[in-house]
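Now read this:
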Amino acid sequence: MIRFLEFAGRPLVFFVEECGRIMLLLLSTISWMFRPPFRFRVVFRQMEFVGVNSVGVVLITGAFTGMVLALQTYHGFKMFGGESLVGSTLALAMTRELGPVFTALMVTGRVGSAMAAELGTMKVTEQIDALNTMSVNSIQYLVMPRIIAAILMLPVLTIISDFVGIVGGYFVGVNLLKINSGIFIAKIIDIVELDDIFNGLIKAAFFGFILSLIGCYKGIYTIGGAEGVGRATTQSVVLSSILIFISDYFLTAVMF
């Protein structure tokens, strides 16, 4: 019986330990945000890596998401004579849900995995220990800039995704499905509000916080050499994606 309880309780203990280490990393990161030296150059470098270098994949993802959504909603609304609502439905879906979520997932795959792999490699090769030996706080130098950059750049990438998604849906709806362009745009203006856009951007910032925190955490606590780096990278992407979906539900329930 005791062995069974030990076996059953081991995952719970591991989960609590993981949550505790993540919270300690978060608190340490917040405390270092307001203490000099302020490494703006490092933050800008990470903003370029997270934001500028992710524009291409976000453009492709957003455009085809909008195009597919226009096709699907058109065929659904056509059965009830509601083709005029394709534009507004597309815009609401992109600004509230699909833009922030798909952008976060793509950035997680490209950036979150890179954060875990880079920091994990530094950890197993003892470069992080060398930084601490030289009186350079590894949390301030390595973790904080990445989290700040992700929080700032995810809303920007989401705006790009929303825009190209709506443009792609417009192209499909107006040019291929022959929806009246005036009605398509007018329904978007009438139904979509600024709160829908702002709430989507708040979601994006929160998703950026999640994927950067998890990526840095998995990298900082990597063990086991090259195999451990690969394992940390995989776990970072999977855990971040799961947390993005879970948090999206709760944020949607609160905001809308």
Observations:
- The mean pLDDT is 88.
